[in-house]
User: What shape does this take?
Amino acid sequence: MHGLFNRSIQCFLRDTYGAPLWAAVSRNAGLGFDSFEAMLTYDMHQTEAVISAAVGLLDRPRETLLEDLGTYLVSHPNVDALRRLLRFGGVSFVDFLHSLEDLPGRGRLALPDLELPSIEVADHTPEYFTLRCHSELPGMGHVFLGLLRAMADDYGALVLLEYQGSAQGGDVVSIHLLESSFTTGRRFELTARAG
Assistant: This one.
């Protein structure tokens, strides 16, 4: 698993629950180090060990933890770069959904060895979509559930999201767009502010 993803899990746990929890997670996971390097690649068992340790220490279901990670990746100020990358997908939530299939390619432009989950988005009606993601990490659909929920808020869209389970080797999330302009949404500018 790419270090960037592992580092994101580390930052999520540290920023949300504090440095002492992260220290306990890294110790219980048997990492032998206290911080992931974003540009290295790690064995998948280390990623799984971190998630399992966090689930045990927090006494939370794995699915909930992964969904909260997805929300964190878009909504926390410390990871605004990912939100910006995702917002380049379009001016509306539907544009954003259609751009998700290109996300792995856009990620590889910045980091050639970055392997993001493959994503397929199908529109069944103008208001109903399904997202299927294929990843070596079990439960990645829950990360996307949290990410989609946060992005809908970011765009000001009202959506009903549901994890449908795993089918044909990928996790499936259903997306029902109830209102595309429910609220104003968060401010977004093409260029980042200095400072």
